[in-house]
Amino acid sequence: LLTIDTATAGPTVSPDLGGIFFEDINHSGEGGLYAELVNNRSFMAAATPLHWSATGSGAISIDKSTPLNTALTQSLKLTVTAPGDGISNEGFWGIPVRPRTTYRASLWAKGTYRGRLTVALTGKDGTVYATGTTKSVTGDWTQYELKLRTTASAPTTADATLTVTTSSSASDTVWFSNVSLFPPTYNNRPNGLRVDLVEKLAALDPKFLRFPGGNYLEGNVIADRFDWKKTIGAVEERPGHQNSAWGYWSTDGLGLLEYLELTEDLGCAPLLCVFAGYALHGAYVTGDALKPFVQDALDEIEYLTGSTATTWGARRAADGHPKPFPLTYVEIGNEDWFDTSGSYEERYAAFHDAIKAAHPHLKLIATTPVSSRPYDLIDEHYYQSPSAFQHGAHKYDNRDRTTPKVFVGEWASQGGRPTPDLNSALGDASWLTGLIRNSDQVLMESYAPLFSHVSNNVWATNLIAYDALTSYNSPSYYAQQILRTHQGTVVAPTTARALPGLNTVTTRDPRSGRLYAAVVNFGSVARTTSVEITGARKIKPAGRATVLAGTALTDTNTLTDPEKLTPHTRRVTGLAAAFTYTFPPFSVTVLEVDAP
Ligand code: AHR
Fold first, then answer.
1. What's its top-level EC category (predicted)?
2. Nearest CA to 220 among 263, 266, 176, 282?
3. C or N terminus of the chain, fewer CB within 10 Å?
């Protein structure tokens, strides 16, 4: 028996509850959300020309003696011996092309060569899908920009390469720096993001974006942290850094302003994680040595929120965004429970005191409990089995309501690769019922990780996966989406009696009287259940059910079968103060009942 009490108002659903957490893991940023198609565009990734090859009879090498500027201290040297010699980039497991599409190419070059460069998108068999030419190369570093439009007969493929070729008949040298290629981006932003992936994020209706990590924020060593000041301004002035936590180079083209513009595009709030003097392999900073890091955080907050009369607010305006961003939550570090030295107590206090002095209204998130200073939220992370989440759905029901509120900043059932299977989706949905029910305590939550490139699945289970061309949503994505987008503003107390394997939460919109009863059935059999709605003046007999269901716990979505499991909405009738409803096996259902 499921009893929904509409007369007693439960907790108000936290308006900030459902967010997203992004960090560059599994090529989530480089080769993922960040739409740049050239891999190692800056030639800074290694001492060898990773992801580049010479075409024709030329030779290529990394040259440190001819830098573009003080940020890009390595360039690619091409020694030309015959017409048609050039360079080619393989992209991130291929460069995607589509017919009748315009790509923006940009490159810096200089050399002894005085001819034009031909820039082309080319198939493996040599078919040219799009081509353009630059002006003649000179002896000085010059940027060449051109638009490449694919032909109507170009295929939709991820197998293209970007080639840049010369026509020199002499022995010449050409140096290249920051060779870039962008497809159309979300909202047509230059230096922007991949359309299909942002659309998938938008459809989750996130309330906030936690960024930039995670381990990516910290780096294995302090030098590899997300050093935000090196991630702003012209892309060719960003040195990039080794993403040591996840094993590849980051150009930092996806920098602080790009994250903030993403929050604007998604209509959500930034949740800014600041580096707090601790790196993953254990290095930590305290005392006077911590002061520059605290100042970096203050400057970063000023970059987001300061007026254009402030130093960093002016810099934000110079970078193209005069309007300040709204900011409420700042997280100090990441998973500082790993810091066995105990230095977080001191580090948190230093950041707390400086930030609260300058911005008393900001709310601070601690990553592990501290005692000398208050914190507004504590960030808890849970990576567990689907069954642990199923049984853990009541974790917060009996929480001491006087302790600090919670941000469940990373959570996910572990099962399925590179994305969760139905079993994990049911675990995730169960867990989420508990977070929603207790969202007077759990003010915010975000699943993790968000993305994986199918060819770089370093972290096993991720919400959304893609290759160079296409992407798909996991069953867990859909489970979360239906719980988030079919939700009232107040919890309606709901009891489930003699219903093992069912997890549930009901929310209600007090203005319309609509109830949203979310029920997760982990069982392999359909559950015909008596439902009682108490305290409602009237109940409309017709409502809706949105259901995600499968036939086996191993069911999942893939690149080749992206919609095996998707939610479906149908009309239901016979709703009343007491009715029976059958929840399908292995399912997540949100029943919408109008009970004004
Ligand atoms: O989400 C993957 C990683 O898990 C995050 O980078 C880190 O915070 C956690 O340990």
1. hydrolase
2. 282
3. N
Spatial contact of 527 and 399, defined as CB atoms under 8 Å apart: no
Q: How far is the CA of 287 from the centre of ligand 1 (A)?
A: 27
**Whole-angstrom distance, CA of residue 191 vs CA of residue 201:** 18
Q: Enter the CATH code of domain 2-10+488-594.
A: 2.60.40.1180
Read off φ and ψ for residue 133, nearest 5 degrees: -130, 150
Predicted pLDDT at 500? 78
- Phi and psi at 38, nearest 5°, equal -90, 130
Would you please indicate which residues are annotated as catalytic (active-site) residues?
335
* Ligand 1 atom 5: residue of nearest CA: 214
* Residue extents of the structural domains in the chain: 2-10+488-594, 52-182, 207-374
Edge-to-edge, what's the strand order for the sheet holding 494-496?
A: 494-496, 2-5, 527-534, 578-583
Q: Measure 268 CA to ligand 1 centroid, in angstroms.
A: 22
pTM above 0.90, yes or no: yes
Q: Which residues contact 594 (CB under 8 A, 6 or more apart)?
A: 512, 513, 514, 515, 539, 540, 543
What is the CATH architecture of 207-374? Alpha-Beta Barrel (3.20)
Q: Compute the distance between CA of residue 79 and CA of residue 59 in angstroms, rounded to an integer.
A: 5
The first and second tokens of residue 582, run together, are 């059958």
Residue type, position 232, single letter: I
User: Which architecture, in CATH terms, is 52-182?
Assistant: Sandwich (2.60)
Quote the pLDDT of residue 9.
87
What is the CB < 6 Å shell around ligand 1? 23, 25, 213-215, 334-335, 381, 410, 448-449, 459
Burial of residue 53 (CB within 10 Å: 0-12, 13-18, 19+) is middle
- pLDDT band for position 258 (cuts 50, 70, 90): very high
Distance 215 CA to ligand 1 centre (A): 6
Question: Nearest to residue 280, comparing CAs of 229, 216, 228, 227?
Answer: 216
Pocket test for ligand 1, best of 23, 331, 407 (most atoms within 8 A of CB): 23
Q: Taking the mean position of all CA atoms in its chain, how far away is CA 167? A: 42
Does residue 324 have a pLDDT over 90?
A: yes
Quote the crossing angle between the two packed helices 291-305 and 256-266, to the nearest 10°.
40
From the list 165, 179, 180, 36, the residue with the least C-alpha distance to 109 is 179
Query: What number of CA atoms fall less than 13 Å from residue 152's CA on the CB side?
Result: 0
Give, for ligand 1, the residue of 225, 244, 410, 462 to mutate: max count of ligand atoms closer than 8 Å to Cβ: 410
- Write phi, then psi, for 102 (nearest 5 degrees): -100, 130
